[in-house]
Amino acid sequence: MHGFNSVNWTNVLLVIVLTSFATMFAMANLTLIQVHFLGVSSATIPFYVPVFIAFMLGFFGGVLALLFSRRKHKQEIIWLRQENERLQREVDNLRNIPLQDDV
């Protein structure tokens, strides 16, 4: 239970540090800008907004890629466990075959 508690405090500390950096970044970048993309212009927004949006899109793209990779690895683990069981049965069967002397 001790390990679980220390992980929670580490996560809380990490969230506090990241939130502090994000807040400091936002406060330092309040300059108003207009974003133009594919012929569409945004309203006037603070500079940190498109930066955070780009960061979040990258983060969620990474999470999505991780989920697909994890799914692939889980399927491979299932296949390897089945193969291991099959090979273990084969080894057990070979151990049970009586030895024959051709003398």
UniProtKB/TrEMBL annotation:
**Which UniProt keywords are present, listed alphabetically?**
Cell membrane, Coiled coil, Membrane, Transmembrane, Transmembrane helix
Membrane spanning residue stretches = 12-35, 47-68
- Residues in a coiled coil are 70-97
Q: Name one GO cellular component term.
A: plasma membrane
Q: Which Pfam families match?
A: LapA_dom (PF06305)
Residue span, Lipopolysaccharide assembly protein A domain:
29-91
Domain of life per record: Bacteria
Q: Which CDD domains match?
A: bZIP (cd14686)
Full protein name: Lipopolysaccharide assembly protein A domain-containing protein
